[in-house]
Amino acid sequence: MCLGIPGELVRFVADQPDLALVEVSGVGRRINVALLADEQLQPGDWVLVHVGFALSKISETEAQAVLAYLEEMGQPYADELDALRTSNIG
Amino acid sequence: MRFVDEYRDAGRARALAGQIAARCRPGREYKFMEVCGGHTHTIYKHGLEDYLPENVTLVHGPGCPVCVIPMGRVDDAIHIAEQPDVIMTSFGDMMRVPGGQSSFLDAKAAGADIRMVYSPLDALKIARQNPHRRVVFMAIGFETTAPSTAMTVLRAAEQGVDNFSVFCNHVTIIPAIKAILDSPDLRLDGFLGPGHVSTVIGCRPYDFIAREHGKPLVVAGFEPLDILQSVHMLLGQLADGRCEVENQYARVVPEDGNPIALAAIARVMRLRPYFEWRGLGFIPYSALGMADEYAAFDAERLFEVPGIRVADPKACQCGEVLKGVLKPWECKVFGTACTPETPIGTCMVSAEGACAAYYNFGRFSRERVREATRV
């Protein structure tokens, strides 16, 4: 649960400015982006996702490095992605 | 992979190891605490201790949110889960954490409706979908996670969801570091500061560690080279006679943290006068409860909570491991009675727990090799 997972912002959800579709390791999920309201997020930006919320904006370089770190982690990352797949916030 | 090389390059790691050795004064022992469980994981996984000179030791701190939950709080949560019409929700990591009587998994098998969620927002959705049930989210975590709970409560209030509440167990990192600094058991020379917590709180809250306790702190990233570089920075401060808070992880951690996240916590939660930490005992102002204004979302006010206090099992030495006094393998039950499959202590449950990290990766560490060759 403590993991921050990088995701790429695909698009904002219509009529819900706090929500965006974010793709994390091939899993597309709605993520709450209200904590980054000051960052003027755009599609194509990378964010660190933690328990359904985007916690910080990061560069693509950083995102790739964190992804590699998580993939090496093995089971805990697989568990986190499984949990993310069940997530359906709205 | 091009991007990763920047943080993984073995040549750079060896070069840094050389620079670290050059900064150490011969004959002096250096002991640094990595506060965050994510760092512990990287250190064991990559065998980073083997890159450090013999007189530099890394000790593990209390920064694993699952590990510091006292058994009594698990029993309290199970008591709530067993009340009529309740759906208890929490993160997957909580499911196997042993309470005094049982774990969430055991209670679920015995008939309680306990569900794993990825996000507190998923718990809120379950509440909306089940208007005749009372949905409780067992919230755990440091400042990394507390804003998510706070934002979820704000959303529940906005949407008028009146069957959702939070059993709040959020803890704050600064008082725990303070407790460790005040503990006579351990003399530390500096800290590797937590990465993700600092994205929320920023770097300023650590100032007192440098100013009042005279210990340097470097906020560190999670890559192997991040950690080696942070150790190098700590040694640099000691060599120069400086004592500051430095940010090695500036590519992710803003100096002032995340003001929106901090405002959400401040609005929805209040510091508790005291809270029990597993192994560390009661620490004043170290945890968050729900603010009076949000009492309607506070499971502790909506349900009768027994407030059970359970002493840790005698065999378990999680407390000493969380304070960095013992290395995981020095615990009497490590790897024998206590394993990730059948954990006795919380440090063995979570992947960020020092014991689980060592059990999974740490078998070839420097100390172990030394131990083995001595016999």
CATH superfamily descriptor of the domain at 71-173 and 256-302 in chain B: HypD, alpha/beta domain 2
Contiguous runs where pLDDT drops below 50 for at least 5 residues of chain A = none
Helicity range of chain A: 25-40%
Overall 3D geometry of chain B? Answer: globular
CATH fold label of chain A: SH3 type barrels
Helix and strand sequence of chain A: EEEEEHH
CATH fold annotation of the domain at 71-173 and 256-302 in chain B: Rossmann fold
Structural class call of chain B reads alpha/beta
CATH architecture annotation of chain A: Roll
Tally of DSSP helical segments of chain A: 2
What is the C-alpha radius of gyration of chain B, as a whole number of Å?
A: 21 Å
Domain count of chain A: the total is: 1
Protein name (chain A): Hydrogenase assembly protein HupF
InterPro entries (chain A): Hydrogenase_HupF/HypC
Family (chain A): Belongs to the HupF/HypC family.
Family (chain B): Belongs to the HypD family.
Structural overview:
The complex is a heterodimer of chains A (90) and B (375). Chain A has one domain: SH3 type barrels (Roll). Chain A has two helices and five strands, in the order βββββαα. Chain A has helices at 60-73, 75-86; strands at 5-13, 16-24, 27-32, 46-50, 53-58. A five-stranded antiparallel beta sheet of chain A has the order 3-2-1-4-5. With 375 residues, chain B is α/β, with parallel strands linked by helices. In chain B, 39% of the residues lie in helices and 17% in strands. Chain B has 16 helices and 13 strands. The model of chain B has no long low-confidence stretch (mean pLDDT 90). The chains are: A alpha+beta (90), B alpha/beta (375). At the A-B interface, β5, α1 and α2 of A face α1, α3, α6, α7 and α9 of B.
